[in-house]
Write a structure and sequence with these properties.
heterodimer, A: 112 residues, mainly beta, 7-stranded mixed sheet, 4-stranded antiparallel sheet, 11 strands, 58% strand, globular, B: 114 residues
């Protein structure tokens, strides 16, 4: 798993509360990504980072923000959680722009 | 219509069978093609990685890419119960502005029964 740790592994939260998910990598990979996985949709890109403080939006970025202040950490924040954000969230890293990605084991988030 | 289409299955085969998994895509800019395997409650792990058209073999696994037909396949020979998982195809356009962003199929659930 390329030294990728996601925390927490499971979280239950209430609608309207802010939530932050953390991805920590020990491989010094430049590129980091947040995906969500939902039945019938596969994995969809939320946000990605191509360097410290360099981030951009993916396919399904509404309601999410990210920050990357250090190479090893990439944070995903749900500003005001909604039930539609109940999902499994995966962090991934890559060494080069065209290298395959390595994934963490996910965070299972339930918004009630 | 999704950029990448993958039959979700489920697919159930006996041990020892040859398995064929497929994806079609619509974006002709895709150049890099991957297959990931995902076990229950785990993250996807890379199985095969190919660039452009052609075949690539690794043990019991063979990946094929046909860019003219916008079609990729993964073959598993002598399938084992340990191959039971969800298989995800993924692809990217490459190039300096792609930043490694992958587009995934929705995954095919495979069960190999003894």
């Amino acid at each position: 798993d390329a030294g990728i740790t996601q925390s927490p592994r499971h979280k239950v939260t209430e609608t309207g509360t802010p939530v932050t998910l953390r991805c920590h990598q020990t491989e010094n990979h430049r590129y980091m990504y947040w995906y969500r996985q939902d039945p019938g949709h596969g994995l969809r890109l939320i946000h990605y980072s191509y360097g410290v403080k360099d981030t951009d939006k993916g396919e399904v970025s509404d309601g999410y923000s990210v920050s990357r202040s250090k190479t090893e950490d990439f944070l995903l924040t749900l500003e005001s959680a909604t039930s539609s954000q109940t999902s499994v969230y995966f962090c991934a890293t890559g060494t080069e722009s065209n290298s395959p990605l390595h994934f963490g084991n996910g965070t299972r988030l339930t918004v009630t | 219509q999704k950029e990448v289409e993958q039959d979700p299955g489920p697919l159930s085969v006996p041990e020892g069978a040859i398995v064929s998994l497929n994806c079609t895509y619509s974006n002709s800019a895709f150049q890099y093609f991957m297959w990931y395997r995902q076990y229950s409650r785990k993250g996807p792990e890379l199985l095969m990685y190919t660039y452009s058209s052609g075949n690539k073999e690794d043990g019991r696994f063979t990946a094929q890419v046909d860019k003219s037909s916008k079609y990729i396949s993964l073959f598993i020979r002598d399938s084992q119960p340990s191959d039971s998982a969800t298989y995800l195809c993924a692809m990217s356009a490459g190039g300096g502005t792609s930043y490694g962003k992958l587009t995934f199929g929705q995954g095919t659930i495979l069960t190999v029964h003894p």
